[in-house]
Amino acid sequence: MSAVPFGQSRLITIRCTAVLLFSISGMIASHAQTGLPPFVAGFERFTRHGDLGTAESGELLVAELSCVSCHASGNPALSPKRGPTLAGAANRFSSQWLREYLASPTSQKPGTTMPHMLAGLDPEQQQAAINRLVAFLGTQKKPFETVRATGAVAVLHEFWNQGDADRGRDLYHTTGCVACHEPDPDQGTSRTKPSAVDEMINQLDPEELQELGLHRAARRVDSVPHGDLVAKYTRRSLTMFLLRPESFRSGSRMPNMRLTPSEAADIAAHLLVGKVTESGMGESAVDPRMIEEGRALFVELQCRNCHEVTGVAAPRMVMPWDRLDPRKDNTCLADPAVGMPDYGLDALQIEAITARIRTRESNLQSLPGQQVHGQMLKLNCYACHQRKTVLSQGGTAELIGGVGRYRKAYFEMVDQVDLGDEGRLPPPLTGVGNKLQSKVLKSVFEQRTPAYRRHMKARMPAYQAQAVQKLIEKLPDADRKSEKQKSESAVFGKPNAGLLSAGHELSGTGCVECHHYRGESLPGVIGIDLAGITTRVRPEWFHDFVIDPGALKNRTRMPTFFPDGKSSRPDLLEGDVEDQVAALWFYLKDLANQPLPEKIEKVRSQNYELRPKERPVVLRSFMRAAGTHAIAVGFPEQIHYSFDAEKIQLTSAWKGRFLDARGTWFERFTPPAEPLGESLVQFASGPPFAVLEENEAVWPEWGSLKEMYLFQGYRLDDKGVPVFQYRFGKWQIQERIEPVGQDGLRRHWEIQTRQSDADGNLEASGSLNLCIHQGRDLIRHSPNILRGGGLQVTVVSVPQAETRSDARIVKGEKTDRWILPLSSDDQCTIAVEYKW
Amino acid sequence: MVMRKAFFLLFVGSFCCTFGSNTGVAADEQDFYRMISVATSKAPTESRSKNWKPSPEGLPLEISGMTFLDDKRLAVAIRKGEIWILDGVYDEPATNVTYKRFANALHEPLGLLQHNGGLYTAQRSELTRLCDVDGDDVADEYLTAAKGWVVTGNYHEYAFGPKLDAKGNLWVTLNIGMGLKGEQLQRAVPDPPMGYRQGRWRGWGMVLTPEGKLVPMCAGMRSPAGLGANAAGDMFYTDQQGNWVATNSLHHLRPGVFFHHAEALASMNEPGSTIQGVEKVPAGVPIPEAMKRFPQLRPPAVWFPYKRAGQSPTDIMLDASGGKFGPFAGQFFVGEFTQAGVNRVFLEKVGGEYQGACFPFRSGFASAVLRLAQGADGSMFAGLTNRGWSSLGNASYGLQRLVWTGKTPFEIQEMRATRDGFELLFTLPVDPESATDPVSYAMQSHTYLYHAAYGSDEIQKQNLSIRSATLSDDRRRVRLVIDGLRELFVHALEADGVRSADGQKLLHPDAYYTLNRKPD
Asked: Do B11 and A128 touch (CB under 8 A)?
């Protein structure tokens, strides 16, 4: 709180106000504003070229100049843009700049919509008022928001000082800033060829342009002026403004460009190139009286009506809107008296506002399309987007807006790809209310919504909900083709398996050449991902667009697959066009569970499918059967297996295709690798070796033996076949698994008794046994052949001391085992084949 | 009228409030350490995309391990599970680098070390020794050097290393799992102390002894992505801010020590555990208080204040070049993932334990810095990859090299604790006037909360007053006497006002000293 006690401060307020009022009453402004009249993008672009009606233009100005902040009106169409919040002004603006701006707003910021409030005061008076206002604003301190750093957002220490002007310059010219603001003529642009229309425009004279209806496209669009940013901002305050414009200006006229903190700092560095000293308001002892008088002036001069600050009285309202009389002398419109706002309006602007006041109609815009148009003018959506709009009563719809021919070059695609204007310019919005589903229309404006057209460098900015509410509400009404939006079933009927598989097939025919599917695409294809398309666009629009894209989107690159209304795939669904479009819709709707189009599958498999050609291929991964220590081995013979290196056992085998490695190689959440082939056989779980007393009937569980096992890795032999190394108790074992022709696998063990062991616990009572196979219902066909679990198991080689008939079947509670006892020779080899 | 005149006269020319604070133009990091891109690539998908794909051109050089085979050849592990031998990496420009695949089929290897005639790498499930037996520069032995930690299958269970300490131990650090579910829980330690659900040895530092035994040493790690030994051969690791970890940190690895992450106590009662008898983990208390209540909990040698000194530390590189990499011989350089940079650490021993300071060093790498290695010429190689998280920079992965230009940056080279303050050693002689003016310095101390939540704010902040600043005869050391030092608090110094003898500002005026203990 101020050091001035309340009573005293109030006295000062009264005196100050009284003095100023006394001083200004009855005086006529001695000089009007100089410099540009207020710059309102829609007015400059359209009204000045006769595109908009006078009263309609007036309404735009009334909102953008915030007239009803002082002249109260309940009419939402007139609701004021208002000015930036000045809470925190002391940290954000240089006091020198504030002084100069207050002394002459338009010379500091040509085209500003803030009126000059001190026009007409003599220099001394003006200076005194400025001193007080600046003293008061010096009390408006508010710490900058702390920007949260996360794993996803890098926030450098004092990131606002770490901006890189070169990067910022690039961002400024590519993310979309130059849709409204002035590009730097020296900035290089992509070398995209001008479109045919642009070529033509270049060669025509104005009359010809008018005749051909190209005059709007040919027009130069003026830029929203920046003012002297170097004088005004610090690096930090400009960076924070660019990062969170909505925290400082509530009207979304400057939308949120979805910048990262670093990007905001980069653009600020670019805009502040040449700034050497950082000056804020500084800390200085200011006479508390000055502050209090400034506080009073802030209300008196109606600054409070447009600017948020802390610690001031309610705004001072003047004559309500409905009672305004533009015929009077000395109004805010023209020749304002001292103490009145001086906007520096030009004749056309005065005429427009006058017309709006005179209509006395509360609602100029009764149709949804007009309301959309009105809001698009205010938010300057037309800076980026074209839209067909009816400009005059009874007139036809005209295509207006868009980035304009002189700015096109700054709109680029990523990676220098060329998809023509459609790939780099913001999309036209004609019929968009009929295209997008309501939820999507709403989310487009929200900051958390990720970019949809990832191939474009320009970004769709985020807007405050309040600013776009009218667009979200009215666009569907404005663009609706029929009385009621048609439901999915009304357009496409019900899905069935036949439609889904036809949709898969149709997708592969043409769509894959330009579109992505669930993040997958053909090489070099840059385009929209069709995953989620059915939750994005309305069924009816999809239907119409797929059948005749050009009818809904002029000059689109999307071709029709139904020339003359006939399908180019008469073999599918009897060539029925309606069924085929429905098939596409339902296939895309279920894309998450459907196979990718075949061509994409093929590319994916080329990149990520492991295809053993000459030598075996190994992959360590997580697998369902083999667990978290899985080793998968694929062979050129098209027979493959998985091995669990934790429990040291063969777990599964399959034929045909081997594995897709993308998840293992590149996915953060480590999905298990899935066998791609067929004829999968699972080997039942259990330890391969155990020590048993003679004729002992119970095969131990893994858990009781795991301390005796030690996995030691593998060696690749001359053919590249991994030979697993492991210990079991006193035995050192090598196990090699390889295909036998095309029929199955052969496992080959070499067992040696180790001479010594540091642990000295080699001795185990009983003898070594190998579990050759296990499963339910094992049937022995001969001493060395057994069937069960879908396999035929053949013992092809046993140690000399043993005979094959020694192998015995041990029945278990859950599973039976075929067990081969081994004598404790120093060394032996065993081979078994598994065929299926 | 008279009144009005008087009123305005009072104020004419009486008011001025413009104060400029000169930030000056600091020298550029690249004037002292220039960056050379050996190979960098941009993926067509975003770093966190589920459908992440590498650039269609070239090798997906997501470097996760680096070791020099000799004065020329660099072996790198890449995250998809391969090891490549690179030659020509010292060329400028590096346009003729050759690549030869040495090994494949490794499960996300996150380290690489040439040792005892083989290449060692930690995969998710084991420490593997790779050997080329037949001399064709391609590994034919993939032998398990050590295994025994549990892999539940949770994505976050990374295994890092190995690195070699003075005793010949190979160190491996094991990430804690995040949000175990389903089948993963069945692989967790059964009936764990205090109900913590983690696989065995998750969140532990392990060594493979020269005798070939895998031994658990210390516990409480969250995401120990970096390991490194200092000149004495003592081993350190970095941890990353998150649950239980207040901010990023650097720790000395010693047997029986607990660092932060309580869930590592799931393995406390497993055979071989070096931590015993923890019955209750204090939570929601300031770090100094937590240390009192939890005796096994030991403070890090260095806290890296969040954002100010990185967001996610990775590898630790000792500058063992003896001056070929500039004035920081014997110090640590710590990779930084999210901010795509490198920070620097000075350590000293106070009361027998390591503590010290961290300093910003170099920003502007092309992507997240995951691995660091020093080349034969002293230059620093940085292995980059940002997949799965995010980082600054325009690339997704690759290899860059940082070379000292021979020009000495004006930096705080060392920051030592003294009985009543700190002693600063500057890389260049200072300007006596600014260096002895206490106003040239500002210090604030803070600590953190020990709790299960993700990271901690800086708490119990206090501004300290600099009582005096005294300059040594050689004009490179300044002794600061400071009131109100607090043990177990981070002391953040900003030496913005100090100028070198030739008038330069400090390249990085900030230093953060973790004062676990004041010298006697």
From this structure: yes
Nearest to A124 among B12, B80, B391 (CB): B12
Find the residue in A nearest to B150 (Cα): A628
> How would residue A781 be classed by pLDDT, with cut points 50, 70 and 90?
confident
Q: CB of B2 within 8 Å of any CB in chain A? A: no
Region of residue B378 (phi > 0: left; psi between -120 and 50: alpha; otherwise: beta): left
What DSSP string runs through A184-228?
A: PTT-----PPPPHHHHHHHH--HHHHHHTT-HHHHS--PPPP---
Q: Cβ A135–B22 below 8 Å, yes or no?
A: no
Q: A611-835 — its CATH code?
A: 2.70.98
Please report the pLDDT score of residue A191 as a whole number.
Answer: 56
User: Taking the CA atoms of chain A, what radius of gyration do you get in angstroms?
Assistant: 39
Question: What residues of chain B lie within 8 A of the CB of A160, using their CB?
Answer: none
Q: Where are the domains of chain A?
A: 6-138+284-359, 159-271, 368-479, 488-605, 611-835
A452 touching chain B per CB within 8 A: no
* Residue A173 pLDDT greater than 70, yes or no: yes
* CATH number of the structural domain A488-605: 1.10.760
**CB contacts < 8 A (A, B):** 188
A488-605 matches A611-835 in fold:
no
How many other β-carbons are positioned within 10 Å of the β-carbon of residue A590? 15
In angstroms, the separation between the Cα of residue B395 and the nearest Cα of chain A is: 13
Select from B184, B441, B226 the least CA-distant residue to B336: B226
Chain A CB contacts of B125 under 8 Å are 620, 628-629, 645-646
Closest residue in B to A163 (Cα) is B364
In a mutational test of the B interface, the residue from A150, A156, A518, A723 whose CB has the highest number of chain B CBs within 10 Å is: A156
ipTM over 0.90: yes
SS3 state at B306: coil
At residue A21, does pLDDT exceed 70? no
Phi, psi of B203 (to 5 degrees): 85, 20
pTM (2 d.p.): 0.89
Average pLDDT, stretch B298-304? Answer: 98
> Is A22 in CB contact (< 8 Å) with chain B?
yes
Q: Does A359 touch chain B (CB under 8 A)?
A: no
B312 neighbors B389 (Cβ within 8 angstroms): yes
How far apart (Å, rounded) are the C-alpha atoms in residues B126 and B159?
8
A693, burial (CB in 10 Å: exposed 0-12, middle 13-18, buried 19+): exposed
Tell if the CB–CB gap between A156 and B363 is shorter than 8 Å: yes
- Lowest-confidence pick of A376-380, A796-800, B323-327, B509-513: A796-800
Looking at beta carbons, which residues of chain B come within 8 Å of A101? none
> For residue B510, what is the nearest residue in chain A, using CA coordinates?
A157
CA distance A95 to chain B (A): 6
Q: Do B18 and A96 touch (CB under 8 A)?
A: yes
Structural domains of chain B, ranges and CATH numbers in brackets: 29-50+58-404 (2.120.10.30), 412-515 (2.60.40.1220)
Ranges A250-264, A765-779, B189-203, B212-226: which has the least confidence: A765-779
Instruction: Give which of B273, B270, B271 is closest to B190, Cα–Cα.
Output: B270
A132, A135, A154 member nearest B339 (Cβ): A154
Which of A71, A49, A67, A60 has its CA nearest to residue A365?
A60
Mean pLDDT of B266-288: 96
Q: What does the block give as tokens for B381?
A: 């190689």
Average pLDDT over chain B, rounded to an integer: 94
A310: closest CA among A1, A13, A628, A48? A1
Task: Determine the distance in angstroms separating the CA of A214 from the nearest CA of chain B, rounded to an integer.
Answer: 38
CB A718 within 8 A of CB A800: no
